[in-house]
Amino acid sequence: MPVPTDQRDPRLEGPLAGVRVIEMGQLLAGPFTGSRLADFGAEVIKVESPGSGDPMREWGHHRYNGKCLWWPVLGRNKKSVTANLKDGRGQALIKRLAESADVLVENFKPGTLEKWGLGPDDLHAVNPGLVIGRVSGFGQTGPYADRPGFASVGEAMGGLRYINGFPDQPPPRAGISLGDTLTGMFCAQGILMALYWRDALGGGKGQVVDAAITESCFSLMESALPEFDKLGIIRSPSGTGLANVAPSNIYPTKEGKYVVIAANIDAMFRRLCAAMGRPELADDPKFVDHRARGENAAELDALIAEWTKTKTAQELDRHLDGHGVVVGPIYTIGDIARDPHFQARGMVRQFEDEDLDGLAIPGTAPKFSESDGAVAWLGPPDVGSHNEEIYGGLLGMSARELEDLRNDGII
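Above: the chain's sequence. Below: its structure in token form.
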């Protein structure tokens, strides 16, 4: 059950205030799951290895004053404790934390928690209501369960890589760890469902949420499977647009930038034709409906591109939006940071931080009308910086006990 109001950290606000989460594991998929919960008020206690901590503290190519710029965001609103999980005393600390937790998140290789005596059976023995979110490459069961899996392989075997890019070219990757963050979102959703079931339908019983990177990627494949099953069609990469959907593509501008124009429904296409000064195109048999436009997409795209090259991206954005056409320039991160809409929505925030001289960070999404999320602090600067608060305060351990564990390399 949620942490009593008088025991909550008053800095943590949002719809998950009072939910206590133990975050185990490292790098991205498991920690991103914890980040989704921490952004909205959950008390996330991140367990790190003594001394070294999560490798994400040092990831990313760029530094400011010698400090990683990724970790402050990934670790925000989290509390860091240390525990040597290969030692029985470290494992005992996790069991004690689990007694008062609602959720435990981990992304170790399947079987690792069980090897440490911290598998679901062990944890449910001390807390039957605990929801356990497990993130892995291939899931906890099945022929591939024992294989190590990163986002890159999950994207490849889950189908996303094959449909990305251009025909007859090697399939590229996105410039982010898409499979990891996508699976983190699936796992966070599953955890919230499991919490609801526990409290509303399950009589207080916890369960395991098994989130696989391959399955999370595969779940985004839309109608690819039934198309293959019934028609033998293998969906292929389609470059900058979608096969048989037009116009919905990127188009060049006067200054060499690109904008996205999506006017693939009849009424929207008619508005685009009017905006282009070519209203007759809407009644041309080659473009008159969705199927015709799809069959003649290359010709239609060329006509639109000829027109868009006469205007700047800003002019196109303003002109087409004024005609009710879906349009948007392709933004760099610099464009996003300067955009007044992102700023007005609180998605580009300046956070005061002495070590980094202030830092622009992403806001929380989605927005809530009554219990919005908030950023209380950035990623804990020091590994184990909350040992005294959590082990001493929550578990009631004495200063001498903590010192002994520290000296023995347990925390």
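The chain has a mean pLDDT of 94.
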